[in-house]
Amino acid sequence: MRDHYTRTAIALHWLIAVLLLGQFAFGLTLEDIPRGTPERAIYVNLHKSSGIVIGLLIVLRIAWRLRHRPPPLPASMRPWQRYAARLSHIALYLCMLALPLSGYLASNFSKYGVKFFNLVHMPPWGPEDKTLYAFFNGTHHVAALLLALFVGLHVLAVAKHMLIDRDGLLWRMWPRRAERGIHPHPDLPLEPR
């Protein structure tokens, strides 16, 4: 049984993490650009376009995860911790899917659609509907807040495992260790999932 994630899973994990962090910052910056200006349209379309790309990477990550079992959790983890880890990962994946999907759907119930990286116009396939736009746009904002919350919990859990439990949990997703196939704590038993 592997004691670390595959190279593909590790690459997708860290790439998506960095892109989502950038997308969060980008989304917050959009609030400072005045509505109705040409500059706002350019930046909004860049945000939409990068969101589509990130969404496709998330789908790829989920597909990879469904076909490749994760490494086992440390046997020292209590049953409630393993249960909480599974639930929080499901919540992370649901939020990561809801965020780009709701943004894309909102765009298709506005008159603008998406101008992919400001080069290729993708006209909306839905009618201009302010109610549906508001619903999906609101869902987009709620999904962003929930994702930020779950990412924060994820980081805190990793910090707990590294600083308090010292069970080497982070090394399962760390590229350098994964490439060498080193288990950082061979004396700690692993429990299969």
Write the layout of secondary structure elements.
Blueprint lengths: L6 H24 L7 H30 L5 E2 L4 H30 L5 E3 L3 E3 L7 H36 L9 H6 L9 E2 L2
Antiparallel strand pairs: 1-4, 2-3
Count the E strands: 4
Structural shape: elongated
Radius of gyration: 20 Å
- Number of individual domains: 1
- Percent helix: 55-70%
Low-pLDDT runs of 5+ residues are 177-184, 186-193
Estimate the mean pLDDT confidence. 89
Beta-strand proportion? 5-15%
Structural class: mainly alpha
Protein name: Cytochrome b
Cofactor: heme b
Membrane topology: Multi-pass membrane protein
Organism: Massilia norwichensis
Features:
193 residues, mainly alpha, Fumarate Reductase Cytochrome B subunit, two-stranded antiparallel sheet, 4 strands, 65% helix, 5% strand, disordered C terminus, heme, metal-binding, Cyt_b561_bac/Ni-Hgenase, iron
Brief sketch in words of this structure:
The chain is mainly alpha-helical and 193 residues long.
Describe the fold and architecture.
This protein is mostly helical and 193 residues long. It has one domain (7-181): Fumarate Reductase Cytochrome B subunit, CATH 1.20.950. The protein has five helices and four strands; from the N terminus they run H-H-E-H-E-E-H-H-E. It has helices at 7-30, 38-67, 79-108, 130-165, 175-180, and strands spanning 73-74, 114-116, 120-122, 190-191. A two-stranded antiparallel ribbon has the order 1-4. The chain is elongated.
